[in-house]
Amino acid sequence: MSIDYAAFRRELEAFARQACPPEIRAVVAAGQKITKREYQAWQQILNDRGWGAPSWPVEVGGTGWDIRQRLIFEEVMAENDCPPLYHHGLGHIGPVIIRFGTPEQKARFLPRILDGSDWWCQGYSEPGSGSDLASLQTSARRDGEHWVVNGQKIWTSHAHEASMIYMLVRTSKEAKKQEGISLLLVPMDTPGITVRPIRTIDGWHHLNEVFFDEVRVRADNLIGEEGKGWTCAKFLLERERLPPANVARLALMHRQVSALLQKAAQAAGARRDFGVLQHKLLLCEAELQGARVMMAQATDDLIHQRPLGVQPSAIKMTCADVAQRLTTIALDAVGPEAAHRFLAEEGGEELPAATWIQNYMFTRARTIAGGTSEVQRNVIANALLGA
């Protein structure tokens, strides 16, 4: 049966306007930090509607939507200032459990991701293992019906508010480094876990370092085969940059262009460089339109099961670069009189100017997080030049 995508879009638009609470939309529209409070409330609303997991199969509680429907969903929600789906549970570990988990593991973990009961973080990077993730040293040794974990993870987003962490651990030092890694699911309230905040220049608390000291974890919390966690990790990372994960980001940046044009126009009477700001914004908008074309091509490739090639890397790199440029333009638009102000405190009243400053500082990491732009350039160069 053919799908009426225009009618589907209208249904989503009506739902977004009616169902998303105004106080949540206000946080998103203002560019403020979206916290667990907003994410969780919106996830519960979506789950009650049956839309809690747009990318999951119907048999595990998903919508069963095709790729085009998922893209339309992400775009419409972003256009209406609804929070993006919280990716760690729905987009990362959920699909891994669906693909590699046992029936018992699916029954235990998936419903709690759907309704927002469990809040997940990712334990991958370590102080000496970032780009070379396979060199990780956090260990897990088998002790009867438990794994005992020791080590440290770093740059762990949302660990301070998460109830669960999915983490790569070394279960064998004899095998070559990729083959000695396993994927383990660990409750964050387990004795022996310590979370310490990493303070970043944007003033928002989102990063942490996490320490594991003789942490005992149920043996059946291991996903997939022992020593085959690298397979699970590659499965996750390959899907992290698929088009549906980037659509909301593109739609949000289009919203930012509109907001910045208004900001620059309001300042036109007092500033002589309005034309310069407008020119910069138009260049950003042109690049976003180019990214949309790449997105449309990648979507068509997904639908027809053609290889995506370097498209996810190119889209990710473009989005990161434009995000940084947009927030730089925003800082110029609010003017130097705002730039010296203290940052708004997390959870407090945020001045629009202060929010732009925080977003400027936050986006400095966009060319690092999720795969550095340098790595993406290498991926693209290797594919195009055959290196």
TrEMBL record:
One of its GO terms (molecular function) is oxidoreductase activity, acting on the CH-CH group of donors. Keywords: FAD, Flavoprotein, Oxidoreductase. Residues 227-385 form the Acyl-CoA dehydrogenase/oxidase C-terminal domain. Its cofactor is FAD. SUPFAM superfamilies: Acyl-CoA dehydrogenase C-terminal domain-like, Acyl-CoA dehydrogenase NM domain-like. Residues 6-116 form the Acyl-CoA dehydrogenase/oxidase N-terminal domain. The keyword Membrane does not apply. The keyword Oxidoreductase applies. It comes from the Bacteria. One of its GO terms (cellular component) is plasma membrane. Residues 121-215 form the Acyl-CoA oxidase/dehydrogenase middle domain. Belongs to the acyl-CoA dehydrogenase family. This is Alkylation response protein AidB-like acyl-CoA dehydrogenase. It comes from Pseudacidovorax intermedius.
